[in-house]
Amino acid sequence: MTDTVEKPNQLVAVILELRHYVRTLAISLVVGTFGIYFLIPAILQELQKHLGQKLAFFTVAEPFLAHVKLAFAVTLFVLMPAIIYCLWRGLAKPFKLTSTSLGWFVFGTCFLFYGGSSFCYFITLPFGVDFLLGFQSVQLQPVISIGKFVVFTSVFILAFGFIFELPIFMVFIGKVGVITRNTFERNRRYALLAISIVAALLTPTPDVVNMMLMGGPLYMLYELGIIILKLLRIP
Asked: Model-level pTM?
């Protein structure tokens, strides 16, 4: 009877803790977006220089809205360690994670997120942009909207950061016994299908090249998750 009462109490405590975190993070996102907004011209200039693009706008409000969107994306990127910490804190109690495990999960998730974002920014995104603009000709010249450019780059970079966290997710659900390592090994075919669908949904453009640029690393991360489960001797 005591255990039955304690479990709902723990669940309520976790929900209340997450509500506090969500409120704090929401305020931080708003304040951070406002503060970083004034740095966006320099950030946007660097992004244009990195990708070698000239931008245009087609409505009066488009430049302002594009700056706000980019400020929000940069704030989200900067605050990601705090967001990750809050999420793992919420999962620690119900799944009985030790302080050491919690620390490693937070560190690993942050490391993979920024690793994936960096991989996208320095390797995948320039290649993808060059490929997509390779279809221009004398008769067909690109005029890139600042609004769509900001959305394209922001979504692509953040999406890569999130999908690179796949090994951590696999280790977590393997550790708590939701899915075994043997299940991951037996279902590689279905994992490949799921990865293809995810890549199609997350890539800003539906072309095969961008899907492969996301799907290829994602499948390698899937195999990395299996290797880590083996090294940790999680069945």
From this structure: 0.86
